[in-house]
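Per reviewer request, we include the raw input and output of the structure prediction for the construct analysed in the revised manuscript.
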Amino acid sequence: MDEKKLLEIFPFIQRSVNLFNDQNRYLKKIILTGKICALDKAANLFSFTEKTTETFVTLKEELIPLLLEKNLHKYTDKLQSKAQISIDILIRNLFERTADVGFLATDESIIAFLNEQETSENLRKRLIEYALKYSVYNEIIITDPQGNIRLNINATNKVRFSSDPIIKQALFTEGYVEGYNHSDLFPTQHKTLLFAHKITQDNQPIGVLIVCFRFDDEMEQIFSSLLDANEHIIFHDGKEVIISSSDVSTAKKVLSNIHDTTLHKNGNVSVSAKTKGYEGYYGASWSSLAYTNIKKNFYSTSSNFSAIKCTLDPNIQNIITKADDVVEDLSDIIINGELIASKERVYVLTPVLDNLRNVSTSILSTIKETVDNLEHAIIEGLIYDVQSSAKLAIEIMDRNLYERANDCRWWAMTPVFEKELASKLPNTKRLTDLLKYINSLYTVYTNLFIYDYHSTIIASSNDPSIVGKKVSGEHITKTLSNNNSQHYFVSHFEPLPFNGDQATYLYNATISNNGKVLGGIGIVFDAYPQFQAILNDSFPATKIGFSSIIDRKGSIVSTTHPTMKPLERMELDKEIFQFNSKEASHHFITFHGKKFLVGIAQSQGYREYKRHDNYKNDLLSLTFIEY
Protein backbone atom coordinates (compact mmCIF):
# COMPACT_ATOMS: atom_id res chain seq x y z
CA MET A 1 0.00 0.00 0.00
CA ASP A 2 1.47 3.34 -1.09
CA GLU A 3 0.70 5.53 1.94
CA LYS A 4 1.85 8.77 0.33
CA LYS A 5 -0.34 8.18 -2.72
CA LEU A 6 -3.35 7.33 -0.59
CA LEU A 7 -2.93 10.42 1.59
CA GLU A 8 -3.18 12.53 -1.56
CA ILE A 9 -6.44 10.76 -2.43
CA PHE A 10 -7.95 10.98 1.08
CA PRO A 11 -7.30 14.56 2.29
CA PHE A 12 -9.39 14.08 5.45
CA ILE A 13 -6.86 11.43 6.56
CA GLN A 14 -3.99 13.75 5.74
CA ARG A 15 -5.64 16.22 8.10
CA SER A 16 -5.48 13.64 10.89
CA VAL A 17 -1.80 13.00 10.11
CA ASN A 18 -1.07 16.72 10.33
CA LEU A 19 -2.89 16.97 13.66
CA PHE A 20 -1.02 13.98 15.07
CA ASN A 21 2.31 15.46 13.96
CA ASP A 22 1.51 18.91 15.37
CA GLN A 23 0.41 17.44 18.69
CA ASN A 24 3.50 15.26 18.90
CA ARG A 25 5.74 18.27 18.32
CA TYR A 26 3.80 20.23 20.91
CA LEU A 27 4.17 17.42 23.45
CA LYS A 28 7.92 17.30 22.90
CA LYS A 29 8.15 21.08 23.34
CA ILE A 30 6.14 20.91 26.58
CA ILE A 31 8.41 18.15 27.91
CA LEU A 32 11.53 20.12 27.00
CA THR A 33 10.17 23.25 28.68
CA GLY A 34 9.21 21.30 31.78
CA LYS A 35 12.64 19.70 32.04
CA ILE A 36 14.31 23.07 31.86
CA CYS A 37 12.05 24.47 34.56
CA ALA A 38 11.70 21.60 36.99
CA LEU A 39 13.69 18.51 36.03
CA ASP A 40 15.10 18.14 39.52
CA LYS A 41 11.61 18.13 41.07
CA ALA A 42 9.66 16.06 38.49
CA ALA A 43 12.14 13.84 36.64
CA ASN A 44 9.90 10.74 36.89
CA LEU A 45 6.93 12.74 35.65
CA PHE A 46 8.74 13.83 32.49
CA SER A 47 10.14 10.34 31.94
CA PHE A 48 6.58 8.95 32.03
CA THR A 49 5.43 11.74 29.72
CA GLU A 50 8.13 10.80 27.20
CA LYS A 51 6.99 7.16 27.27
CA THR A 52 3.41 8.30 26.71
CA THR A 53 4.62 10.38 23.75
CA GLU A 54 6.29 7.31 22.27
CA THR A 55 3.02 5.38 22.68
CA PHE A 56 1.21 8.24 20.96
CA VAL A 57 3.61 8.05 18.00
CA THR A 58 3.14 4.27 17.80
CA LEU A 59 -0.60 4.80 17.90
CA LYS A 60 -0.43 7.15 14.93
CA GLU A 61 1.81 4.72 13.00
CA GLU A 62 -0.79 1.96 13.49
CA LEU A 63 -3.97 3.98 13.17
CA ILE A 64 -3.26 5.96 9.99
CA PRO A 65 -2.32 2.96 7.76
CA LEU A 66 -5.40 1.10 9.02
CA LEU A 67 -7.61 4.10 8.29
CA LEU A 68 -6.14 4.33 4.79
CA GLU A 69 -6.59 0.60 4.25
CA LYS A 70 -10.24 0.55 5.34
CA ASN A 71 -11.11 3.58 3.22
CA LEU A 72 -9.37 2.07 0.20
CA HIS A 73 -11.19 -1.21 0.78
CA LYS A 74 -14.52 0.61 0.59
CA TYR A 75 -13.70 1.05 -3.10
CA THR A 76 -11.77 -2.11 -3.89
CA ASP A 77 -14.35 -4.34 -2.19
CA LYS A 78 -17.13 -2.56 -4.05
CA LEU A 79 -15.29 -2.87 -7.37
CA GLN A 80 -14.41 -6.51 -6.67
CA SER A 81 -18.07 -7.24 -6.10
CA LYS A 82 -19.10 -5.52 -9.33
CA ALA A 83 -16.35 -7.14 -11.40
CA GLN A 84 -17.31 -10.59 -10.11
CA ILE A 85 -21.04 -10.01 -10.42
CA SER A 86 -20.84 -8.74 -13.99
CA ILE A 87 -18.88 -11.68 -15.36
CA ASP A 88 -20.89 -14.28 -13.45
CA ILE A 89 -24.25 -12.84 -14.50
CA LEU A 90 -23.15 -12.96 -18.14
CA ILE A 91 -21.88 -16.54 -17.83
CA ARG A 92 -25.16 -17.66 -16.25
CA ASN A 93 -27.01 -16.11 -19.17
CA LEU A 94 -24.78 -17.68 -21.83
CA PHE A 95 -25.05 -21.11 -20.20
CA GLU A 96 -28.77 -21.04 -20.98
CA ARG A 97 -27.97 -20.29 -24.64
CA THR A 98 -25.87 -23.44 -24.94
CA ALA A 99 -28.92 -25.48 -23.96
CA ASP A 100 -31.29 -23.51 -26.22
CA VAL A 101 -29.33 -24.15 -29.38
CA GLY A 102 -29.01 -27.85 -28.57
CA PHE A 103 -32.76 -28.15 -28.07
CA LEU A 104 -33.81 -26.14 -31.11
CA ALA A 105 -31.49 -28.11 -33.42
CA THR A 106 -33.72 -31.17 -32.82
CA ASP A 107 -36.94 -29.41 -33.87
CA GLU A 108 -38.77 -31.65 -36.33
CA SER A 109 -40.06 -28.70 -38.35
CA ILE A 110 -36.48 -27.63 -39.06
CA ILE A 111 -35.53 -31.14 -40.11
CA ALA A 112 -38.62 -31.35 -42.31
CA PHE A 113 -37.76 -27.99 -43.90
CA LEU A 114 -34.24 -29.14 -44.79
CA ASN A 115 -35.85 -32.19 -46.39
CA GLU A 116 -38.21 -29.88 -48.29
CA GLN A 117 -41.20 -31.22 -46.36
CA GLU A 118 -41.98 -27.91 -44.67
CA THR A 119 -42.39 -24.48 -46.26
CA SER A 120 -40.05 -21.62 -45.41
CA GLU A 121 -43.06 -19.44 -44.58
CA ASN A 122 -44.35 -21.84 -41.94
CA LEU A 123 -40.93 -22.44 -40.43
CA ARG A 124 -40.05 -18.74 -40.35
CA LYS A 125 -43.29 -18.06 -38.55
CA ARG A 126 -42.48 -20.82 -36.09
CA LEU A 127 -38.94 -19.55 -35.43
CA ILE A 128 -40.22 -16.01 -34.94
CA GLU A 129 -42.55 -17.47 -32.32
CA TYR A 130 -39.52 -19.04 -30.65
CA ALA A 131 -37.63 -15.74 -30.72
CA LEU A 132 -40.59 -13.90 -29.21
CA LYS A 133 -40.22 -16.10 -26.14
CA TYR A 134 -36.57 -15.11 -25.77
CA SER A 135 -35.82 -11.43 -26.25
CA VAL A 136 -32.10 -12.25 -25.94
CA TYR A 137 -31.95 -13.36 -29.60
CA ASN A 138 -32.10 -11.09 -32.63
CA GLU A 139 -31.53 -13.70 -35.32
CA ILE A 140 -31.96 -17.43 -35.95
CA ILE A 141 -30.29 -18.89 -39.03
CA ILE A 142 -30.41 -22.30 -40.70
CA THR A 143 -27.69 -23.26 -43.17
CA ASP A 144 -26.97 -26.37 -45.16
CA PRO A 145 -23.59 -28.13 -44.61
CA GLN A 146 -22.02 -26.03 -47.37
CA GLY A 147 -22.89 -22.71 -45.71
CA ASN A 148 -25.82 -21.76 -47.91
CA ILE A 149 -28.38 -19.93 -45.81
CA ARG A 150 -31.65 -21.75 -46.19
CA LEU A 151 -33.66 -19.55 -43.82
CA ASN A 152 -33.33 -16.73 -41.31
CA ILE A 153 -35.87 -14.67 -39.36
CA ASN A 154 -34.34 -11.17 -39.51
CA ALA A 155 -35.77 -9.54 -42.62
CA THR A 156 -32.99 -6.94 -42.74
CA ASN A 157 -30.28 -9.59 -42.96
CA LYS A 158 -29.87 -10.35 -46.70
CA VAL A 159 -26.76 -12.57 -46.51
CA ARG A 160 -27.33 -15.84 -48.42
CA PHE A 161 -24.00 -17.63 -47.96
CA SER A 162 -21.47 -17.86 -45.15
CA SER A 163 -17.95 -19.18 -44.80
CA ASP A 164 -17.93 -18.49 -41.06
CA PRO A 165 -15.75 -21.22 -39.44
CA ILE A 166 -18.43 -21.80 -36.81
CA ILE A 167 -20.48 -23.72 -39.41
CA LYS A 168 -17.73 -26.26 -40.07
CA GLN A 169 -16.93 -26.47 -36.35
CA ALA A 170 -20.56 -27.26 -35.58
CA LEU A 171 -20.69 -30.00 -38.24
CA PHE A 172 -17.77 -31.81 -36.59
CA THR A 173 -18.67 -31.18 -32.95
CA GLU A 174 -20.89 -33.16 -30.64
CA GLY A 175 -22.81 -30.45 -28.86
CA TYR A 176 -22.84 -26.68 -29.18
CA VAL A 177 -20.17 -24.36 -30.61
CA GLU A 178 -19.74 -20.82 -29.35
CA GLY A 179 -17.91 -17.95 -31.05
CA TYR A 180 -17.42 -14.22 -30.64
CA ASN A 181 -15.75 -12.91 -33.77
CA HIS A 182 -16.46 -10.91 -36.89
CA SER A 183 -18.83 -12.99 -38.99
CA ASP A 184 -19.80 -12.66 -42.63
CA LEU A 185 -23.30 -13.54 -41.43
CA PHE A 186 -23.38 -9.99 -39.99
CA PRO A 187 -20.91 -8.06 -42.17
CA THR A 188 -21.71 -4.63 -40.71
CA GLN A 189 -21.03 -5.70 -37.13
CA HIS A 190 -17.55 -5.64 -35.64
CA LYS A 191 -18.13 -8.86 -33.70
CA THR A 192 -21.14 -11.09 -33.06
CA LEU A 193 -21.74 -13.66 -30.35
CA LEU A 194 -23.05 -16.83 -31.99
CA PHE A 195 -24.08 -20.27 -30.77
CA ALA A 196 -24.30 -23.07 -33.32
CA HIS A 197 -25.32 -26.73 -33.33
CA LYS A 198 -25.46 -29.28 -36.14
CA ILE A 199 -28.86 -30.53 -37.29
CA THR A 200 -28.87 -34.28 -37.85
CA GLN A 201 -31.05 -36.96 -39.37
CA ASP A 202 -30.23 -40.62 -38.92
CA ASN A 203 -27.02 -39.48 -37.19
CA GLN A 204 -25.90 -37.60 -40.30
CA PRO A 205 -25.49 -33.78 -40.34
CA ILE A 206 -27.94 -32.12 -42.73
CA GLY A 207 -27.45 -28.52 -41.66
CA VAL A 208 -26.46 -26.09 -38.92
CA LEU A 209 -28.62 -23.99 -36.61
CA ILE A 210 -27.16 -20.65 -35.52
CA VAL A 211 -28.62 -18.28 -32.93
CA CYS A 212 -27.34 -14.73 -32.50
CA PHE A 213 -27.22 -13.43 -28.93
CA ARG A 214 -27.98 -9.74 -28.34
CA PHE A 215 -24.62 -9.25 -26.69
CA ASP A 216 -24.36 -5.45 -26.73
CA ASP A 217 -27.90 -5.15 -25.42
CA GLU A 218 -27.17 -7.57 -22.58
CA MET A 219 -23.96 -5.76 -21.64
CA GLU A 220 -25.82 -2.45 -21.49
CA GLN A 221 -28.34 -4.05 -19.11
CA ILE A 222 -25.56 -5.41 -16.89
CA PHE A 223 -23.69 -2.10 -16.82
CA SER A 224 -26.77 -0.01 -16.13
CA SER A 225 -27.89 -2.25 -13.26
CA LEU A 226 -24.48 -2.39 -11.56
CA LEU A 227 -22.61 0.85 -12.09
CA ASP A 228 -22.83 4.10 -10.19
CA ALA A 229 -21.54 7.44 -11.47
CA ASN A 230 -17.85 7.41 -12.46
CA GLU A 231 -17.64 3.61 -12.26
CA HIS A 232 -16.79 1.49 -15.28
CA ILE A 233 -16.35 -2.15 -16.26
CA ILE A 234 -14.25 -3.63 -19.05
CA PHE A 235 -14.63 -7.19 -20.34
CA HIS A 236 -11.42 -8.45 -21.93
CA ASP A 237 -9.77 -11.66 -23.08
CA GLY A 238 -6.80 -11.41 -20.71
CA LYS A 239 -4.54 -10.22 -23.53
CA GLU A 240 -5.63 -6.57 -23.69
CA VAL A 241 -8.33 -7.28 -26.28
CA ILE A 242 -11.49 -5.48 -25.21
CA ILE A 243 -14.71 -7.49 -25.51
CA SER A 244 -17.06 -4.85 -24.12
CA SER A 245 -16.80 -1.71 -22.03
CA SER A 246 -19.09 0.75 -20.29
CA ASP A 247 -16.68 3.55 -21.31
CA VAL A 248 -15.36 2.98 -24.81
CA SER A 249 -13.39 6.24 -24.88
CA THR A 250 -10.99 5.28 -22.08
CA ALA A 251 -11.18 1.48 -22.01
CA LYS A 252 -8.11 0.75 -24.15
CA LYS A 253 -5.88 3.14 -22.22
CA VAL A 254 -7.11 1.88 -18.87
CA LEU A 255 -6.68 -1.78 -19.78
CA SER A 256 -3.13 -1.29 -21.02
CA ASN A 257 -2.12 0.32 -17.71
CA ILE A 258 -4.16 -1.49 -15.09
CA HIS A 259 -4.11 -5.14 -14.13
CA ASP A 260 -5.43 -6.93 -11.06
CA THR A 261 -5.85 -4.63 -8.02
CA THR A 262 -4.01 -1.42 -8.83
CA LEU A 263 -3.93 2.10 -7.44
CA HIS A 264 -2.56 4.91 -9.59
CA LYS A 265 -1.44 8.30 -8.34
CA ASN A 266 -4.16 9.98 -10.41
CA GLY A 267 -6.72 8.30 -8.13
CA ASN A 268 -7.74 5.41 -10.41
CA VAL A 269 -8.30 2.11 -8.64
CA SER A 270 -9.24 -1.14 -10.38
CA VAL A 271 -10.05 -4.75 -9.54
CA SER A 272 -10.30 -7.71 -11.92
CA ALA A 273 -12.24 -10.96 -11.73
CA LYS A 274 -12.69 -14.24 -13.55
CA THR A 275 -15.93 -16.17 -13.62
CA LYS A 276 -16.71 -18.83 -11.04
CA GLY A 277 -18.58 -20.69 -13.78
CA TYR A 278 -22.11 -22.02 -13.72
CA GLU A 279 -23.19 -25.66 -13.96
CA GLY A 280 -19.70 -26.47 -15.25
CA TYR A 281 -19.83 -23.81 -17.98
CA TYR A 282 -17.10 -21.12 -18.11
CA GLY A 283 -17.68 -19.56 -21.51
CA ALA A 284 -14.81 -18.06 -23.48
CA SER A 285 -12.54 -17.46 -20.44
CA TRP A 286 -13.12 -13.73 -20.43
CA SER A 287 -12.23 -11.52 -17.49
CA SER A 288 -13.84 -8.39 -16.12
CA LEU A 289 -12.14 -5.31 -14.75
CA ALA A 290 -14.02 -2.71 -12.70
CA TYR A 291 -12.46 0.67 -12.04
CA THR A 292 -13.19 4.15 -10.76
CA ASN A 293 -11.38 7.34 -9.84
CA ILE A 294 -11.59 7.84 -6.08
CA LYS A 295 -10.99 11.57 -6.33
CA LYS A 296 -14.01 11.91 -8.62
CA ASN A 297 -16.05 9.27 -6.87
CA PHE A 298 -15.49 9.92 -3.17
CA TYR A 299 -18.51 8.68 -1.27
CA SER A 300 -19.76 8.52 2.27
CA THR A 301 -23.11 7.17 3.35
CA SER A 302 -25.62 9.49 4.97
CA SER A 303 -26.41 7.01 7.74
CA ASN A 304 -26.36 8.04 11.37
CA PHE A 305 -23.75 5.87 13.07
CA SER A 306 -23.93 7.52 16.48
CA ALA A 307 -25.62 4.52 18.10
CA ILE A 308 -23.78 1.86 16.09
CA LYS A 309 -20.56 0.17 17.10
CA CYS A 310 -19.10 -2.59 15.00
CA THR A 311 -17.66 -5.78 16.37
CA LEU A 312 -14.14 -4.73 15.47
CA ASP A 313 -11.28 -7.03 14.63
CA PRO A 314 -8.47 -7.49 17.20
CA ASN A 315 -6.10 -5.04 15.47
CA ILE A 316 -8.64 -2.23 15.58
CA GLN A 317 -9.69 -3.06 19.13
CA ASN A 318 -6.03 -3.01 20.17
CA ILE A 319 -5.60 0.45 18.65
CA ILE A 320 -8.69 1.78 20.42
CA THR A 321 -7.39 0.36 23.72
CA LYS A 322 -4.03 2.01 23.09
CA ALA A 323 -5.74 5.31 22.32
CA ASP A 324 -7.69 5.09 25.57
CA ASP A 325 -4.43 4.39 27.42
CA VAL A 326 -2.74 7.47 25.94
CA VAL A 327 -5.60 9.72 27.00
CA GLU A 328 -5.73 8.13 30.47
CA ASP A 329 -1.95 8.43 30.90
CA LEU A 330 -2.00 12.12 29.98
CA SER A 331 -4.76 12.65 32.52
CA ASP A 332 -2.69 10.87 35.19
CA ILE A 333 0.37 12.97 34.30
CA ILE A 334 -1.59 16.17 34.78
CA ILE A 335 -3.00 15.03 38.14
CA ASN A 336 0.42 13.91 39.37
CA GLY A 337 1.99 17.10 38.11
CA GLU A 338 -0.50 19.17 40.05
CA LEU A 339 0.26 17.15 43.20
CA ILE A 340 4.01 17.67 42.72
CA ALA A 341 3.56 21.38 42.06
CA SER A 342 1.46 21.77 45.22
CA LYS A 343 3.65 19.61 47.48
CA GLU A 344 7.04 20.91 46.28
CA ARG A 345 5.77 24.44 45.64
CA VAL A 346 7.11 24.19 42.04
CA TYR A 347 4.80 26.81 40.59
CA VAL A 348 6.73 26.97 37.31
CA LEU A 349 5.03 23.64 36.54
CA THR A 350 1.61 25.30 36.40
CA PRO A 351 1.90 26.74 32.84
CA VAL A 352 3.53 23.48 31.68
CA LEU A 353 0.60 21.49 33.05
CA ASP A 354 -1.88 23.96 31.53
CA ASN A 355 -0.26 23.42 28.13
CA LEU A 356 -0.26 19.69 28.72
CA ARG A 357 -3.98 19.84 29.60
CA ASN A 358 -4.68 21.75 26.36
CA VAL A 359 -2.75 19.33 24.17
CA SER A 360 -4.39 16.41 25.99
CA THR A 361 -7.82 17.76 25.05
CA SER A 362 -6.65 18.22 21.45
CA ILE A 363 -5.20 14.70 21.33
CA LEU A 364 -8.42 13.26 22.72
CA SER A 365 -10.38 15.07 19.98
CA THR A 366 -8.02 13.89 17.22
CA ILE A 367 -8.04 10.29 18.39
CA LYS A 368 -11.83 10.30 18.68
CA GLU A 369 -12.23 11.81 15.19
CA THR A 370 -9.77 9.34 13.66
CA VAL A 371 -11.30 6.29 15.34
CA ASP A 372 -14.77 7.51 14.33
CA ASN A 373 -13.54 7.82 10.74
CA LEU A 374 -12.20 4.29 10.97
CA GLU A 375 -15.47 2.89 12.30
CA HIS A 376 -17.44 4.85 9.70
CA ALA A 377 -15.28 3.43 6.91
CA ILE A 378 -15.93 -0.10 8.18
CA ILE A 379 -19.67 0.44 8.52
CA GLU A 380 -19.92 2.13 5.11
CA GLY A 381 -18.21 -0.90 3.62
CA LEU A 382 -20.62 -3.22 5.43
CA ILE A 383 -23.62 -1.21 4.23
CA TYR A 384 -22.48 -1.52 0.65
CA ASP A 385 -21.84 -5.24 1.16
CA VAL A 386 -25.35 -6.00 2.42
CA GLN A 387 -27.10 -3.77 -0.11
CA SER A 388 -25.21 -5.08 -3.13
CA SER A 389 -25.54 -8.68 -1.93
CA ALA A 390 -29.31 -8.39 -1.54
CA LYS A 391 -29.66 -6.68 -4.91
CA LEU A 392 -27.47 -9.25 -6.64
CA ALA A 393 -29.34 -12.23 -5.19
CA ILE A 394 -32.76 -11.00 -6.31
CA GLU A 395 -31.47 -9.95 -9.74
CA ILE A 396 -29.92 -13.38 -10.37
CA MET A 397 -33.13 -15.00 -9.16
CA ASP A 398 -35.23 -12.90 -11.55
CA ARG A 399 -32.88 -13.71 -14.42
CA ASN A 400 -32.96 -17.40 -13.54
CA LEU A 401 -36.75 -17.59 -13.38
CA TYR A 402 -37.02 -15.54 -16.60
CA GLU A 403 -35.37 -18.51 -18.29
CA ARG A 404 -37.90 -20.90 -16.73
CA ALA A 405 -40.81 -18.83 -18.04
CA ASN A 406 -39.28 -18.96 -21.50
CA ASP A 407 -38.32 -22.63 -21.43
CA CYS A 408 -41.84 -23.90 -20.83
CA ARG A 409 -43.20 -21.82 -23.73
CA TRP A 410 -40.41 -22.93 -26.07
CA TRP A 411 -40.94 -26.57 -25.33
CA ALA A 412 -44.72 -26.30 -25.61
CA MET A 413 -44.14 -25.51 -29.31
CA THR A 414 -42.28 -28.78 -29.93
CA PRO A 415 -43.90 -30.53 -32.95
CA VAL A 416 -43.60 -33.98 -31.34
CA PHE A 417 -45.65 -32.83 -28.37
CA GLU A 418 -48.32 -31.36 -30.62
CA LYS A 419 -48.53 -34.47 -32.82
CA GLU A 420 -48.64 -36.96 -29.99
CA LEU A 421 -51.23 -35.06 -27.96
CA ALA A 422 -53.37 -34.74 -31.08
CA SER A 423 -53.20 -38.51 -31.53
CA LYS A 424 -55.81 -40.82 -30.02
CA LEU A 425 -53.02 -43.05 -28.72
CA PRO A 426 -49.99 -40.89 -27.85
CA ASN A 427 -46.62 -42.60 -28.11
CA THR A 428 -45.53 -42.18 -24.50
CA LYS A 429 -42.06 -43.61 -25.13
CA ARG A 430 -41.43 -41.04 -27.82
CA LEU A 431 -42.61 -38.26 -25.52
CA THR A 432 -40.57 -39.60 -22.61
CA ASP A 433 -37.38 -39.92 -24.65
CA LEU A 434 -37.67 -36.32 -25.85
CA LEU A 435 -38.39 -35.04 -22.34
CA LYS A 436 -35.31 -36.90 -21.09
CA TYR A 437 -33.19 -35.34 -23.83
CA ILE A 438 -34.42 -31.85 -23.00
CA ASN A 439 -33.87 -32.43 -19.27
CA SER A 440 -30.29 -33.53 -20.00
CA LEU A 441 -29.65 -30.16 -21.65
CA TYR A 442 -31.39 -28.13 -18.96
CA THR A 443 -30.05 -29.40 -15.67
CA VAL A 444 -31.96 -27.01 -13.38
CA TYR A 445 -35.13 -29.15 -13.44
CA THR A 446 -35.97 -32.18 -11.34
CA ASN A 447 -38.66 -33.26 -13.79
CA LEU A 448 -40.50 -32.32 -16.97
CA PHE A 449 -43.90 -33.80 -17.78
CA ILE A 450 -46.65 -33.61 -20.39
CA TYR A 451 -50.35 -33.69 -19.48
CA ASP A 452 -53.34 -33.95 -21.75
CA TYR A 453 -56.48 -31.81 -22.01
CA HIS A 454 -58.00 -33.70 -19.09
CA SER A 455 -54.95 -32.79 -16.91
CA THR A 456 -53.70 -36.40 -16.88
CA ILE A 457 -49.91 -36.84 -17.00
CA ILE A 458 -48.95 -38.99 -19.96
CA ALA A 459 -45.12 -38.71 -19.96
CA SER A 460 -42.37 -37.70 -17.52
CA SER A 461 -38.62 -37.21 -17.90
CA ASN A 462 -37.51 -38.45 -14.46
CA ASP A 463 -40.44 -39.87 -12.51
CA PRO A 464 -42.51 -42.57 -14.23
CA SER A 465 -44.60 -43.02 -11.07
CA ILE A 466 -46.58 -39.85 -11.79
CA VAL A 467 -47.73 -41.01 -15.25
CA GLY A 468 -51.48 -41.50 -15.19
CA LYS A 469 -52.00 -39.12 -12.27
CA LYS A 470 -53.93 -35.86 -12.44
CA VAL A 471 -52.43 -32.41 -11.95
CA SER A 472 -54.52 -29.67 -10.46
CA GLY A 473 -54.43 -26.08 -9.38
CA GLU A 474 -55.28 -22.66 -10.73
CA HIS A 475 -52.14 -22.64 -12.87
CA ILE A 476 -53.25 -25.89 -14.55
CA THR A 477 -56.80 -24.63 -15.16
CA LYS A 478 -55.43 -21.46 -16.76
CA THR A 479 -52.98 -23.43 -18.89
CA LEU A 480 -55.75 -25.64 -20.31
CA SER A 481 -57.99 -22.67 -21.11
CA ASN A 482 -55.28 -20.49 -22.67
CA ASN A 483 -55.10 -19.54 -26.36
CA ASN A 484 -52.13 -17.15 -26.26
CA SER A 485 -48.74 -18.74 -26.99
CA GLN A 486 -46.95 -15.92 -25.14
CA HIS A 487 -48.59 -16.76 -21.83
CA TYR A 488 -47.21 -19.02 -19.14
CA PHE A 489 -48.60 -19.96 -15.73
CA VAL A 490 -46.79 -20.57 -12.47
CA SER A 491 -47.82 -22.32 -9.28
CA HIS A 492 -47.40 -20.69 -5.91
CA PHE A 493 -44.17 -21.52 -4.15
CA GLU A 494 -45.43 -24.62 -2.42
CA PRO A 495 -44.67 -28.33 -1.83
CA LEU A 496 -45.28 -30.35 -5.00
CA PRO A 497 -45.68 -34.12 -5.30
CA PHE A 498 -43.56 -33.92 -8.48
CA ASN A 499 -40.63 -32.61 -6.41
CA GLY A 500 -40.60 -35.01 -3.45
CA ASP A 501 -43.02 -32.68 -1.67
CA GLN A 502 -40.33 -29.99 -1.48
CA ALA A 503 -41.46 -26.44 -2.12
CA THR A 504 -40.79 -25.12 -5.60
CA TYR A 505 -42.32 -23.41 -8.62
CA LEU A 506 -44.07 -25.37 -11.36
CA TYR A 507 -43.99 -23.51 -14.68
CA ASN A 508 -46.63 -24.42 -17.26
CA ALA A 509 -47.34 -23.62 -20.90
CA THR A 510 -50.15 -24.62 -23.24
CA ILE A 511 -49.60 -27.16 -26.01
CA SER A 512 -52.00 -26.42 -28.85
CA ASN A 513 -52.47 -26.88 -32.58
CA ASN A 514 -54.23 -24.38 -34.81
CA GLY A 515 -55.79 -22.75 -31.78
CA LYS A 516 -57.04 -25.99 -30.24
CA VAL A 517 -55.73 -26.70 -26.72
CA LEU A 518 -54.30 -30.23 -26.54
CA GLY A 519 -52.70 -30.19 -23.11
CA GLY A 520 -49.74 -28.66 -21.37
CA ILE A 521 -46.14 -29.04 -20.26
CA GLY A 522 -45.12 -28.72 -16.62
CA ILE A 523 -41.50 -28.06 -15.71
CA VAL A 524 -40.43 -28.62 -12.09
CA PHE A 525 -37.73 -26.17 -11.06
CA ASP A 526 -35.05 -27.59 -8.79
CA ALA A 527 -35.57 -24.70 -6.40
CA TYR A 528 -33.66 -25.65 -3.27
CA PRO A 529 -30.12 -26.14 -4.66
CA GLN A 530 -30.56 -23.41 -7.29
CA PHE A 531 -31.69 -20.78 -4.80
CA GLN A 532 -29.08 -21.88 -2.26
CA ALA A 533 -26.37 -21.41 -4.90
CA ILE A 534 -27.70 -17.94 -5.71
CA LEU A 535 -27.69 -16.88 -2.05
CA ASN A 536 -24.27 -18.36 -1.36
CA ASP A 537 -22.70 -16.88 -4.50
CA SER A 538 -24.05 -13.41 -3.72
CA PHE A 539 -23.13 -13.36 -0.01
CA PRO A 540 -20.13 -11.14 0.87
CA ALA A 541 -16.97 -13.17 1.30
CA THR A 542 -15.40 -13.35 4.79
CA LYS A 543 -18.55 -11.97 6.46
CA ILE A 544 -20.63 -13.76 9.11
CA GLY A 545 -24.37 -14.00 8.53
CA PHE A 546 -26.93 -15.42 6.14
CA SER A 547 -29.26 -14.52 3.25
CA SER A 548 -32.94 -15.07 2.55
CA ILE A 549 -35.57 -14.62 -0.13
CA ILE A 550 -39.02 -13.99 1.37
CA ASP A 551 -42.47 -12.85 0.29
CA ARG A 552 -44.30 -9.82 1.71
CA LYS A 553 -45.66 -11.87 4.60
CA GLY A 554 -42.24 -13.13 5.62
CA SER A 555 -42.70 -16.65 4.24
CA ILE A 556 -39.29 -18.01 3.27
CA VAL A 557 -38.63 -19.02 -0.34
CA SER A 558 -34.98 -19.77 0.38
CA THR A 559 -32.54 -19.10 3.20
CA THR A 560 -29.01 -20.00 4.27
CA HIS A 561 -29.95 -19.57 7.94
CA PRO A 562 -28.76 -22.76 9.68
CA THR A 563 -32.06 -23.56 11.44
CA MET A 564 -34.75 -22.03 9.22
CA LYS A 565 -36.39 -23.67 6.19
CA PRO A 566 -38.51 -22.72 3.17
CA LEU A 567 -42.12 -21.76 3.97
CA GLU A 568 -41.29 -20.88 7.59
CA ARG A 569 -42.08 -17.29 8.53
CA MET A 570 -39.42 -14.74 9.42
CA GLU A 571 -40.53 -12.37 12.17
CA LEU A 572 -39.16 -8.98 11.12
CA ASP A 573 -39.96 -5.30 11.50
CA LYS A 574 -43.04 -4.22 9.56
CA GLU A 575 -41.03 -1.60 7.65
CA ILE A 576 -38.99 -4.37 6.02
CA PHE A 577 -42.10 -6.06 4.64
CA GLN A 578 -43.32 -2.65 3.39
CA PHE A 579 -40.05 -1.82 1.62
CA ASN A 580 -40.71 -0.48 -1.87
CA SER A 581 -37.85 0.96 -3.90
CA LYS A 582 -35.83 0.23 -7.01
CA GLU A 583 -32.70 0.91 -4.96
CA ALA A 584 -31.44 -1.38 -2.22
CA SER A 585 -31.54 -0.19 1.38
CA HIS A 586 -30.46 -1.35 4.84
CA HIS A 587 -31.62 -1.63 8.44
CA PHE A 588 -29.95 -2.31 11.77
CA ILE A 589 -32.01 -4.94 13.60
CA THR A 590 -31.93 -7.60 16.28
CA PHE A 591 -32.91 -11.06 15.06
CA HIS A 592 -32.90 -14.21 17.19
CA GLY A 593 -30.95 -12.33 19.88
CA LYS A 594 -28.15 -11.13 17.58
CA LYS A 595 -27.47 -7.74 16.05
CA PHE A 596 -27.52 -7.65 12.25
CA LEU A 597 -27.02 -5.12 9.52
CA VAL A 598 -29.62 -6.16 6.93
CA GLY A 599 -29.50 -5.31 3.24
CA ILE A 600 -32.87 -5.34 1.48
CA ALA A 601 -33.78 -5.34 -2.21
CA GLN A 602 -37.04 -5.81 -4.07
CA SER A 603 -37.62 -8.00 -7.11
CA GLN A 604 -37.64 -5.83 -10.23
CA GLY A 605 -38.00 -8.51 -12.91
CA TYR A 606 -35.78 -8.89 -15.97
CA ARG A 607 -36.52 -7.79 -19.51
CA GLU A 608 -40.23 -8.57 -19.99
CA TYR A 609 -40.34 -11.09 -17.11
CA LYS A 610 -42.56 -9.75 -14.29
CA ARG A 611 -42.55 -6.37 -16.04
CA HIS A 612 -44.78 -6.79 -19.09
CA ASP A 613 -46.12 -10.35 -18.90
CA ASN A 614 -48.77 -10.02 -16.16
CA TYR A 615 -46.95 -12.40 -13.82
CA LYS A 616 -46.88 -11.13 -10.24
CA ASN A 617 -44.46 -12.58 -7.70
CA ASP A 618 -43.43 -9.85 -5.28
CA LEU A 619 -40.33 -11.00 -3.39
CA LEU A 620 -37.72 -9.42 -1.16
CA SER A 621 -34.06 -10.32 -0.83
CA LEU A 622 -32.39 -9.93 2.56
CA THR A 623 -28.71 -10.16 3.47
CA PHE A 624 -27.90 -10.35 7.20
CA ILE A 625 -24.38 -9.52 8.46
CA GLU A 626 -23.54 -9.64 12.17
CA TYR A 627 -22.04 -6.50 13.65
